[in-house]
């Protein structure tokens, strides 16, 4: 996925706390959207980065990327995956003659 299809600012905004003075308003981390620690996530645990056009999510509390992306899809913050392109593995013997 590319940054053109994912709005990082919208994700960060949606996952920031409204509580004054929360660290999520100052730093790169936001609150993870998963219910297991949404309400007692006193310290923002989710990092979201753009690395060479790929969006990476990492929860410091141990949530999986798959679970985070699924929740972001439920929140309409992450697009559904498009059709996958079939990869072609070159033959170790080289091109046919």
The helicity comes to 10-25%
Main sheet makeup: 2 strands, antiparallel
User: What does the average pLDDT come to?
Assistant: 80
Identify the overall geometry: elongated
**Tally of DSSP helical segments:** 2
Beta-strand content estimate: 5-15%
Gyration radius (Cα, Å) is: 18 Å
Determine the oligomeric state from the structure. Answer: single chain
Low-confidence stretches: none
Strand order of the largest sheet: 1-2
Task: Determine the structural class based on helices, strands and strand pairing.
Answer: alpha+beta
Per DSSP E runs of 2 or more residues, the count of β-strands stands at: 2
> Which sequence of SSEs, written as H and E, runs from N to C?
HEEH
- State the separation between the terminal residues, measured CA to CA: 37 Å
